[in-house]
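User: Hello, can you help with two protein structures?

Assistant: Certainly.
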Amino acid sequence: MDYRRVPGGMLVQEADTINEESLPMNPVTQRAPTPDESEDLKFAWRAVKHIKSNAIVLVKDKTLLGMGAGQPNRVVSVFLSKEKAGPKAKGSVMASDAMFPFPDSVEQAAEAGVTAIIQPGGSLRDEESIKSSR
């Protein structure tokens, strides 16, 4: 268990011990990730869980190219990731530490040339984000 003090109480949660090799990847788009993209997605997932809230990472060839975190919204984190990655963003994959509440982050990633995204899902608007990636 992981214990954290917060104002007025304590947060107790299970530690994230999921092995990326056994990570259940359930593609929800028409195109499934290639084997190379799948490996980069696993690497990106491992990296993004260690970054502060609203975390976004861009990865290619198991190299972190761009990162955005701690922002008021996910769109700004995607923007910062793209800026850091520059032209290398084209052909990269993206990981998000949480679901996308709106499709704007997915659309922004597609504009940068991101080819695959891993995220936990769970938004009431997941279908909108999935449709925008087609």
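That covers the first. Now for the second protein you mentioned:
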Amino acid sequence: MNPAVAIPTTAVPRERRRRTIGDYIALTIATCGVGYLPIAPGTLGSMVGIAIYLPFFSWSYRVLEASAFRKRLSLLHVFTPQLAMMLVMIFLVTITGIWAASRAEKLVQKKDPSIVVIDEVAGQMIALLSVPFWLPTWWSILSAFMLFRLFDIWKPYPIRQLEALESGLGIMADDLLAGVYALIANCILISAVLFFAS
């Protein structure tokens, strides 16, 4: 006696699948332990980038400097491999971040969720490449941090347009370019300070 009622497929709640170990690994990488915090997760993500970059930067410099000293090599033999090591580290964080951010976006079912901060980590690391290996002063690190946050929030052309890229690539790409902008701006700032201070 009851007539059949047609229910649109969009109204039927989808069955949530159980999360796998891979899902939890992706969420851990994507959030970097700070993405779920309620206040300024992007800024905290940038701080995680600094916390990862600086110890690795310091360790690689000590190792390469000791090797160059033993072999009586110039500082060029320290700077060049150190830069290569930093670029490889940023590349690995970026590739891992694209995978983790794509998976986190599907799990949260939201475009560019705020809990994902691995993009800020990678972008901040790029900005920190502007800090010269012979001048790791607090002000050059602070300016790299502040400039990256400025470009990440302001999003000058074409940073905002990169957000339209698909999934994790779009999440990462805009922050990577913001990091490049901050890298260039900080290099100019450091050069100006050193020029006028000499």
